[in-house]
User: What shape does this take?
Amino acid sequence: MTRDEVVTRFTAERAAFDRRIEAMDAASFNRIPPGRAHSPKEIVAHVTAYERLIVERLRAARAGETTAFDRDRAGWQPFNERVWRETAGLEDDEVRAQAGAVFADLLHEVARLTDTDLNESTALNRFIDPAWLEGRALWELVAIDGFDHYPMHFAALDDALVEGEDD
Assistant: This one.
């Protein structure tokens, strides 16, 4: 996948995610829909945490440093549980502001990648933690933790919108 394709997918999938969030009032943003485990606010913070990891990995690699995040070492389940706990005390405005700022940073960092960085072993990605890469191309992991991640939450966000309409 080329850098331009990655940026296009990020932009399109994140726009679909953001449309759902922007359609919510404060009550819907904070309400856990029936049959779901998390509120939209928690989902936004969760997605932002994954985006932040991508940004930090790319910045560290450019500095010649390798990261060792708990997400890559202990797995996604403990990481997610920690993020869900940390999100509980955040204010709505803080979650939304962080989401926008981190996504802007993410697009900036991805735009700095070359097609070669995304598809082959390069000087940059030799510093990407092998525990995250698991032998895959960089674009695949950016997709999994980024633009392929957003649609995983669309149904829960849609449920929150429907539940909000019932008020």
Residues 31 and 109 are 33 Å apart (CA to CA). The chain has one domain: 3-165.
